[in-house]
Amino acid sequence: MQIRTKLTIRFILVVAAIQFFGSLGVYFFSANYRRELFYDRLKNKANSTAKLLMEVEEIDAQLLKKIEKDNPVSLPYEEIIIFNHHDEIIYSTDDEHFIKITPQILNEIRLKGEKRFISGSFEILGFLYKDNEKKERLTIIAGATDIFGYRRHRNTGTILIIVFATSILLVLVSGWIFSGRALKPISNVIAQVNKISASSLNLRVQKGKENDEIAELANTFNQMLDRLETAFNSQKTFIANASHELRTPLTAITGELEVSLMKERTNSEYRDVLVSIFEDMKRLNSISDRLLLLAQSQSDIKDKGFEIVRMDEILWDVQSELIKLHGHYKVDVNFDESITDEGKLEINGNRQLIKAVISNLIDNGCKYSPDHLVNVLFKHDGKFFIIEFDDKGFGIDADDLPHIFEPFYRGKNSLATRGHGIGLSLVEKIISLHNGFIEIKSEIGKGSLFIVKLPSKY
Ligand code: ADP
Question: What pTM value is reported for the model?
Answer without folding.
Answer: 0.57
